[in-house]
Design a protein that fits this description.
By secondary structure, the protein is α/β, with parallel strands linked by helices. It is built from nine helices and eight strands.
């Protein structure tokens, strides 16, 4: 896996089924094996410890951060949450260079301890300079589904750039992608940046056929808790469970996420 096929699905294998220390080490080892320059941000607090890794592409003053956490909850293989997203970002490393517009850089940020109330991202925001960051997308659950969800989304120039790029691929709002406001049940790394005043949203894939059920599930905390005892719509049917296995990842979903993120980078202005 360190050499050869660098498809997102194959790269997700680096992490799936491993404990968090091994997942963290696997990402660093892959970057080193591929000769990719990266920066490390190690943190340790009473809440937990870990290593954030970042790769810079481009040399501009304005920065887009694409973020994916490499940890998983205990007892879960952690394929869709969140090895798929890590695989997507690793796959993009050698491909984004020609797409980054003049004046921009893209930072691929691979965070630790997201499952501890996005601790790695919170420490990164607290300890690292945020100058020039124009927007953040945190990738969560990107390996299943045929529609994109941008969530915790508030209108901004950055959001309009993102949706414009997605529509440039021929994807239609409310059919192929959805923009959702603040979600009360779930969160991710982007919230650490949003709390610091940076436009930052979640980026997720989900099955189009379950859009209505998903919206009800994530927007109704009490009902969601009760419903979860019986049935959770995909992709949450495997979320934080032993069923979050490599075999559940869909190559078409990984491709849609990859193409969309590349388009977003190319459309930066």
């Amino acid at each position: 896996m360190l050499a050869g096929d660098d498809s997102p699905h194959n790269l997700a294998r680096l992490l799936v089924g491993r404990d968090n220390g091994a997942r963290e080490s696997a990402v660093a080892r892959y970057l080193e094996h591929r000769g990719v320059a990266y920066s490390s941000h190690r943190f340790a607090t009473a809440e937990g410890a870990g290593l954030n890794l970042s790769v810079e592409i481009g040399e501009g003053e304005r920065t887009l951060i694409l973020c994916a956490h490499h940890d998983a909850v205990p007892g879960s293989p952690g394929a869709n949450d969140n090895a798929a997203a890590v695989g997507i970002l690793l796959h993009l490393i050698p491909r984004l260079g020609p797409l980054v517009p003049t004046g921009w850089r893209v930072r691929l940020l691979l965070t630790a301890a997201e499952e501890i109330d996005y601790l790695g991202a919170r420490r990164y925001v607290a300890e690292m300079p945020l100058t020039g960051i124009a927007g953040v997308l945190s990738l969560e659950l990107c390996g299943r589904g045929d529609a994109i969800a941008l969530w915790d989304a508030e209108d901004s120039a950055f959001l309009r750039q993102v949706t414009g790029a997605i529509e440039g691929l021929g994807l239609a709002r409310e059919r192929d992608y959805h923009v959702v406001g603040r979600i009360p049940v779930f969160g991710s790394d982007h919230r650490a940046f949003a709390a610091a005043g940076v436009p930052a949203y979640g980026f997720t894939l989900a099955p189009r056929a379950h859009a209505d059920a998903l919206r009800r599930f994530v927007m109704s905390p009490v009902r969601s808790a009760l419903r979860a005892l019986v049935h959770r719509p995909p992709p949450f049917d495997t979320y934080h469970t032993s069923g979050d296995a490599l075999a559940t990842l869909e190559p078409a979903a990984l491709d849609l996420a990859t193409r969309s993120l590349a388009a977003i980078v190319a459309a930066l202005r």
